[in-house]
Specification:
292 residues; 5-stranded parallel beta sheet; two-stranded parallel ribbon; 44% helix
Length: 292
């Protein structure tokens, strides 16, 4: 029994050491690259100056044409992330402040994503390589489920989130294999989809007093950043469009642009503009908020 316990203890120690070494290797790889996704682009960058930073979900990523802002002389980047929630948008802004970025305006897509205050695992996992190196990230995740095991057990997070930050992604990061996520200043254009579902139902969706939207407001106020919160277009054949009025009852400061682009020819799907629609929408935002 004594030898069995000794063998087991040695095996556990060796396993722990191997996991620790693998954790160190993976983490160092992720800390050296900024070309794979927007989170790495923020985390591994030096301080930048921005006239406009765009935050939100895919309805920011696909709707705000950052190069059109640049044509007006506004230094801009679209940090909208498909699948992301306000949990991640708030953390991106916190990281930019931590990295001493100077920001004049934040355009925040705040509409459907107000209906939850949970993390998006597919997006949130991409912060995990940096959780030991950034107090900002650690504090943001500290009250989330499974934070303890992700933080204290070496390499565990790379196993749990294998599709997002596991071996394949680590290898592509080490090889500096670029993605399209940083092209077009972060804007991801969609094409016209003839088979798209041009129907949607928001009947059961309810906006919340969202803690992460409140965080974003507080951060902007504390750092003298002008916050422009907007609701972006939906196709007209959507049930429950009164959701957007419900948002304004909670947050009257959010500008409602839900119906500003009309016609299915401008949509790739009911909730996402194609490139032509995004350009119409962006020009309207520029006209309304950046005339000078």
């Amino acid at each position: 029994m004594k030898y069995f316990l000794l063998f087991t203890a040695k095996l556990l120690l060796i396993t722990f050491l191997v996991l620790g070494v693998l954790d160190l290797i993976y983490t160092q790889v992720y800390k050296q690259s900024s070309s794979r996704n927007k989170i790495a682009y923020v985390y591994n960058s030096k301080a930048r100056d921005y006239d406009v930073v765009i935050l939100g979900s895919s309805r920011a990523n696909n709707h705000f044409v950052a190069p059109l802002f640049e044509e007006k002389g506004l230094k801009t980047f679209n940090y909208g992330m498909s699948g992301g929630h306000l949990f991640e948008a708030s953390l991106v802004l916190k990281l930019m402040i931590e990295r001493h970025c100077r920001i004049k305006n934040v355009i925040l897509e705040a509409d459907l994503n107000l209906s939850n205050d949970k993390e998006s695992e597919s997006v949130a996992s991409k912060f995990m390589p940096y959780v030991h190196d950034s107090k900002t990230i650690a504090n943001h995740f500290s009250k989330q489920k499974n934070f303890w095991v992700n933080y204290y057990i070496p390499f565990y997070r790379y196993i749990v989130f294998e599709p997002e930050i596991g071996f394949r992604e680590m290898y592509n990061t080490a090889k500096e294999k670029r993605t399209k996520l940083l092209d077009n200043l972060g804007y991801y254009p969609l094409g016209k989809n003839p088979k798209a579902n041009m129907k949607n139902d928001l009947t059961n969706l309810k906006p919340l007093h969202n803690k992460y939207y409140e965080e974003i407001k507080q951060i902007c106020k504390a750092h003298n950043i002008k916050l422009i919160a907007v609701m972006t277009p939906m196709c007209s054949n959507t049930k429950g469009l009164d959701y957007f009025q419900k948002v304004n009852k909670i947050y009257p400061e959010i500008h409602n642009y839900e119906d500003i682009v009309q016609g299915d020819q401008y949509f790739s799907s009911c909730g996402h503009l194609n490139d032509a629609g995004a350009r119409l929408f962006t020009k309207r935002i520029l006209k309304d908020f950046f005339k000078k």
